[in-house]
């Protein structure tokens, strides 16, 4: 009898130094199904998260636990990695509070992005997603395409500095062209250059209000496609084309955009290669524009002659709406330029439609 009892106790406590190895290779779908099966035991988002972290072998992130019942979850630079993204995704499937999710600088990579995509096909509460600086690349672009094609909740998506190239632009086009919910898209600091797909995206999408393409290498065919598409787009309010390779050969098309487009409110052309002759074409368009509120042309070699052409266009167009003009600094302006600035500032300050006209370099 004593021997039997002793044997039973040894079986119950056999190998006390045995460590349970995490199952980090489990598929996100299988992990989510396991979590659903255990829902009676793990009822809250926190319970599911801690269970998932233990199951796949990653360290829980305290700021996420503290944010579970708020509308903003900011995990910028917390080093989640691929496994951390998986545990996060499984718990977010049942979260109904978080609206904005910031996962910038977390090295989640393409695989981690696929986990977040899987979660967002189930979660309809998150509307603002930030995935900046996660080295998503082409595989990540495919996950983003699936996300935008099938999710109808995301309104704001930031994908800065993720090594996207011209070859990935087609995925963005197919994902975004028919979107009815996405209003804000930031693709800055990537490697787009000569692709026509970004232009096609702009021409066919009817929901985007803000598009940021700054700090790419967009030039020649890529720039022409984007600029031409702006004539067809009726929803875009702001476009950022700063720090690209747009030069004077595109200026005539830019001028035509300002004449044809009556919905664009802000145009950022800072730090391109637009010369005085090129800015003259833009000025012609500005002289016939009735919608643009903000024009940024700083960092372009337009000289004082180009700056004066812009000022004359603003002065001569009584129906212009310009409130902000960001321009290259003129160190020693001529008397004509000084008088023009004073005249415009005076007219703008007397206008009931403009509360604060900003002119700065």
Radius of gyration: 27 Å
CATH topology: Leucine-rich repeat, LRR (right-handed beta-alpha superhelix)
The CATH class assignment is: Alpha Beta
Strand order of the largest sheet: 1-2-3-4-5-6-7-8-9-10-11
Distance from N terminus to C terminus (CA atoms, Å) equals 93 Å
So what's the overall shape?
A: elongated
Helix content: 40-55%
Low-confidence stretches: 1-19
From the coordinates shown, what is the CATH architecture? Alpha-Beta Horseshoe
Order of helices and strands: HHHHEHEHEHEHEHEHEHEHEHEHE
Structure class: alpha/beta
Major β-sheet annotation:
11 strands, parallel
How many domains in all?
1
Task: Explain the overall architecture.
The chain is of the alpha/beta class and 361 residues long. It is 43% helix and 9% strand. The protein has helices at 2-12, 28-37, 45-56, 62-67, 81-92, 109-120, 137-150, 166-176, 197-204, 220-229, 251-260, 276-286, 303-316, 335-350; strands at 72-74, 100-102, 128-130, 156-158, 184-186, 210-212, 238-240, 266-268, 294-296, 324-326, 358-360. The chain has an eleven-stranded parallel β-sheet. Helix 6 (109-120) packs parallel to helix 7 and helix 11 runs parallel beside helix 12 (276-286). It starts with a helix and ends with a strand.
For the structure shown, list the relevant keywords:
361 residues; alpha/beta; elongated; disordered N terminus
